[in-house]
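Late entry, written up from scratch paper. The run itself happened at the end of the previous shift, but nothing got recorded in the book at the time, so transcribing now.
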Amino acid sequence: VQLVESGGGLVQAGGSLRLSCAVSGSTFTINTMGWYRQAPGKQREFIASISPAGGVTNYADSVKGRFTISRDNARNTMYLQMNSLKPEDTAVYYCKTPGQWGQGTQVTVSS
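Output as recorded:
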């Protein structure tokens, strides 16, 4: 299984970005998937998760109401729509499936 994130970049505070996580392998549709992030000098933290069929989602309080996790099982891809971005959202964002992490994509929010 290989996970490849994309969509990161530099954005001004208040802006939006959409991250994608493309997953190779046949197990995508049976696994809960998640997004995590790690800011410089901080531990990696949970952001959001989504159930295999997409019907159940969970969010960290810090992003609730601003970020939306979704998945397209036909495309083996998971997404994270990030709106109303804040400088404190600056971090490397990782997607995760059980036992496997992606390489991460940098998100930088300028004030």
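The mean pLDDT is 95.
(Scratch paper discarded after transcription.)
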